[in-house]
Amino acid sequence: MAIFLNENSKVIVQGMTGSEGMKHTRRMLKAGTEIVGGVNPRKAGTKVDVDGVSLPVFASVQEAMAETGANTSVVFVPPAFSKAAVVEAIDAEIELVIVITEGIPVHDSVAFWNHAESKGNKTRIVGPNCPGIASPGKSNAGITPADITGAGPIGLVSKSGTLTYQLMYELRDIGFSTSVGIGGDPVIGTTHIDCLKAFEEDPETKAIVMIGEIGGDAEERAAEYIKNHVTKPVVGYIAGFTAPEGKTMGHAGAIISGSAGTAESKQAALEAAGVKVGKTPSETARLMREVIENL
To answer: Subunit notes for this chain (predicted)?
Structure first.
């Protein structure tokens, strides 16, 4: 099985006709994703040929859903227009919207997150500023390369796109049920905890890799959840052990307050919950390999 995205997912691309949207639509199709169309009001009614596949362009998410049965949208819309695109997807009550766009103002993310909540959370938001979701052998929605790994028993949830790819590559001989890149912004839709819950409930996921990074308290909260609710083995990695104190780091979420938010505090919280934490991605992969061997 897989979480959130599987072989039955019908995907539309908001912003498909833009350069990034088109590039990744082509890549997702090659990965076997069932893409059923795109959304661009200015080009509604036209069709786009993508490597021999003719994809219709719709005026709205609602129209695309009505015509194709789409249940997933991937957003490749510039930051200034992303809020409107996500709100449109929420209003259409699509099941899943994956927001790839980087640089969305935090107040816009807060606005569409609150909008989803006001609508009863019928739409799961993943992102923004994320690589998306990959369920190897089933579907790939976002920018995660599809040829890194095959299907297997490991579930992965990560704030970092690059580290997602590295862990998938290092454990490619074992394989993954689903990889979820949740994004590193201060306000995101789907959290570590959401993914941990889903992986715990997925019968084909046997172990979980959780990648965090310095800043905020998401990993500490995830550690508390693991301690109380997760029975499957979890291996963790926190990016930022060597970050210089007091220096602003790359991801917008990397804001440290006192001792909270440091790599050391996150490691301590995770280890107290029974999570094995690697100091490097390679050590993390080795720890997971040991876990799988002992299952």
So the answer is: Heterotetramer of two alpha and two beta subunits.
- Binding site for CoA, by residue number, is 17-20, 43, 100-102
Which residues fall within 8 angstroms of residue 281, CB to CB, at 6 or more apart? 163, 166, 167, 170, 237
Active site residues: 251
On whether the pTM is more than 0.70, the answer is yes
pLDDT surpassing 70 at residue 150 = yes
Q: Could you tell me which residues are annotated as the binding site for substrate?
A: 165
Distance CA 193, CA 253 (A): 17
CATH number of 148-293: 3.40.50.261
Segment 168-192 mean pLDDT = 96
Looking at CATH, the fold of the domain delimited by 11-126 is given as Rossmann fold (3.40.50)
Domain residue spans of the chain: 11-126, 148-293
pLDDT tens per residue, range 229-286: 999 999 999 987 666 666 555 565 555 555 567 888 899 999 999 999 999 999 999 9
Q: Backbone dihedral region of 121: left (phi > 0), alpha (psi from -120 to 50 degrees) or beta? A: left
Separation in Å, CA 183 to CA 40, 92, 100, 131, 218:
25, 24, 9, 7, 12
| Reported confidence tier of residue 1, pLDDT bands at 50, 70, 90 | confident
